[in-house]
Amino acid sequence: MQLIKELVNRSFESGLKEGETSERCVFHAVFGTDDQREGMDAFLNKRAPVFRHGKR
């Protein structure tokens, strides 16, 4: 959530191209995290996610 808030705030200070680049970088950085996998699995299996916020 923190990264999303930062992206939204940054979008007010930059152009569309810069915003898309920033969004792409953050997306790639978090896509392979345990929380991302848990969120996707929970969605696909129609259950509530159990996030660990990067903790194992």
In short:
With 56 residues, this protein is mainly alpha-helical.
Please state the CA-atom Rg, rounded to the nearest Å: 14 Å
Task: Tell me the strand percentage band.
Answer: under 5%
Number of domains in the coordinates?
Answer: 1
Task: Report the uncertain regions.
Answer: none
Element order: H for helix, E for strand: HHH
Helix/strand/pairing category:
mainly alpha
Largest sheet: none
> What's the overall average pLDDT, rounded?
86
What is the overall number of helices? 3
Report the end-to-end length measured between terminal Cα atoms.
19 Å
What would you call the shape? elongated
Helix content: 55-70%
Count of beta strands: 0
Explain this structure to me?
- The protein is elongated.
- The protein has one domain.
- The longest helix has 15 residues, at 16-30.
- The protein starts with a helix and ends in a 12-residue tail after the last helix.
- The chain is built from 3 helices and no strands.
- With 56 residues, the protein is an all-alpha fold.
